[in-house]
Amino acid sequence: MTEMKTLRSIAYARSGDKGNSANVGIIAFNPEGFSFLKNYLTVARVKEYFAPLNPSDVLRYELPNLYAFNFILEEALGGGGSQSLRIDSQGKALGQALLEMPIEISLEEWEKCSRRKK
Hints:
By secondary structure, the chain is an alpha+beta fold. Helix content is 25%, strand content 34%. It has one domain. The protein has 4 helices and 6 strands, in the order βββααββαβα. The relative contact order is 0.30.
């Protein structure tokens, strides 16, 4: 049986900009969370989640030693910091926004993934 949780329950995030592209880092609390996210947090899911920003492409880089992923949302900032009329023209809030993504996960797996590494 699966439940709906948010990405926030198994990971941290950091985000910013590189010109007109946003950079969103997702860091799992532990190796189990990284394994879950490796299969669950796909480019397609992230691109769909950020569809209102109309990124031209989404790239995913894996950083297994950090239990992390780096997503680049190309052309998602409306021209970037000096040109965009968006409230968050530098993408600083996008990491927090992604942490609100609903995830479907079994309770057993969630308990493993939600434990923060000590």
